[in-house]
Design a protein that fits this description.
Strand order of the largest sheet: 5-1-7-8-9-6-2-3-4-17-16-15-10
CATH architecture of the largest domain: Roll
Number of strands: 26
CATH class of the largest domain: Alpha Beta
Low-confidence stretches: none
Structural class: alpha+beta
Shape: elongated
CATH topology of the largest domain: DNA Polymerase III, Chain A, domain 2
GO molecular function: 3'-5' exonuclease activity; DNA binding; DNA-directed DNA polymerase activity
Number of helices: 6
Helix content: 10-25%
Protein name: Beta sliding clamp
Organism: Loigolactobacillus bifermentans DSM 20003
Oligomer: single chain
Number of domains: 3
GO biological process, one term: DNA strand elongation involved in DNA replication
Pfam families: DNA_pol3_beta, DNA_pol3_beta_2, DNA_pol3_beta_3
Largest sheet: 13 strands, antiparallel
Mean pLDDT: 93
Amino acid sequence: MQFTINRPDFVRRLNDVQRAISSKTTIPILTGIKLVLTDNGLTLTGSNADISIESFIPVTDEEAELSVVSTGAIVLQARFFSEIVKRLPEKTLSFEVKDNFQTELCSGAAAFTIKGQDANNYPRLPEIETDDQLMLDVPVLRQLIAQTVIAVSTQESRPILTGVHLVLAGGELLAVATDSHRLAQRKINLDINPNIRYDVIIPGKSLVELSRTLGEDFDQVEMRVADNQVLFLAGNTAFYSRLLEGNYPETSRLIPTTSSTKAEFNAPSLLAAIERASLLSHESHNNVVKLALTPEDGNVMISSNSPDVGNVEEALNTESVSGEALEISFNPDYMKDALRSFGQTQIRIAFTSALRPFTLVPTEDDDQFIQLITPVRTF
């Protein structure tokens, strides 16, 4: 196996594939990166058993400048291999596998020899063929991930809640995540065959890595589902993830349909105020911020108290406030995550009581995106 390639372009592909490689895997060969060279191009594969990323570099790619001398396959220890390639001095990298999987890497006057492993021992990726593939715009998918993955659970005690529940039915894609303290739900209407149906739970960690992998180089991504795997195809990159097995909780009943108090805010302004209040709440053992709404006076006050440090109180600017007077306490970190997901928009917050979950929605398209937060009991 022997080839030469444009080193900076090769490093970029290595970085993509390395997202899937973990040093904590129980399968030793998965700490390596698999390279398969054919007359058509070079395929790089990384995996940690939960996610796998495959990147293909065709010989027709002018930027890669890939020149194939002889074909073959090898697995190289990912951390050493990538660090060496990144630090080589010249633009061109020469790669050659010799006897006993000894691999020589040359660039300019620098030459490294590292030991590889037999690629036949590397686990094979699943073949996912389906007629019900789904095409998604990458910016839309990345936004959907950012808006929902914040609410997945980090506790392994309920594994099903560590994922995002994706349901496709009637041309509408619904994404929901909850850790039982908060919930994020996003809907997207798609111009596709309404008969295509999906109901899957994708690990939140997988979606975070997918979002990082799908950079600005990609416009669209194809999604395929089969058995316990999901595959995302974008350009010459393939991203595989296992699916979580089990039944996701019925979350629609958690979202209140009525409210007693409503207030509209500018999301960035409210976020800034909560960030200020949380400076003190983080010094307190319970990390709580209080919101007091007095609709008859049009006043909304935010406050936080830390016995060891001090307290803060601030009057908030609101677009409108209506309904019954209310005092409610909440975790400011949950609120900050929710507000960041709205970006530069106006939002409406609807409350039912001091101890019931409250909702945040954009004032426009309020049925497409919702964040729900459970308040904190302070008495």
